[in-house]
Amino acid sequence: MTTPISVSACARAATAEEAAYRIDYPLAYARSTRVVAFDETAAKTVRSVSDGPWGKAQFYTTSDSGEELITLDGERRPMAMEIEHSDSVIMVATNSIVSNAAAAVGVACRERSIMTAGLLLLDAGALGGDALSALRPYARILLVPADEEDLFELLKGIRA
After folding, report:
1. pLDDT on residue 16
2. Quick one: residue 113, left, alpha or beta (phi over 0 = left, psi -120 to 50 = alpha)?
3. Residue 62 contacts by C-beta under 8 Å, 6 or more apart in sequence?
4. 70 exposed, middle or buried (CB, 10 Å; 0-12, 13-18, 19+)?
5. Is the Cβ–Cβ distance between 91 and 38 less than 8 Å?
6. Which residues, including other chains, have CB under 8 Å from residue 52's CB and lie 6 or more apart?
7. d(CA 34, CA 90)
8. Of 46, 111, 60, nearest in space to 84 by CA
9. What is the pLDDT of residues 19-36, one digit of tens each?
10. Tens of pLDDT along 112-148?
């Protein structure tokens, strides 16, 4: 005696009736991300990644005080206005980090409950404690050590 085989959930999912519930267009970009480089070496990495397939992500360097963000085209903009409506800020630095700028951006993000991530890149040897101390208080997620591929994958992962 044979037992009947029931239709599996996968087979039912292939029916025309179930297909009516599928999303048949690409997902929208979910994040309005700002990527900020805090030194020249980090800026090179940010520039190279900025050519990727990003939706609403915007890429910057920062003034020494952190009060201005500088687009990759050199336009200066008030930092507070640039991050005001962002969902996430990714801070990228090396041993040459400008600590004042990291603090200004980090505090502004904390006040606005903006998700932050930090990447400390290896530039010329081991990372120093000063770089870690400058970024750690402001990055909810911190990748140490990181590289260009980590930045690319992080942006891809959050659908920037």
Report:
1. 75
2. left
3. 36, 37, 38, 68, 69, 70, 79, 98, 101, 105
4. middle
5. yes
6. 152, 155, 156
7. 6
8. 111
9. 777 777 665 555 699 999
10. 999 999 999 987 667 778 888 999 999 999 999 899 9
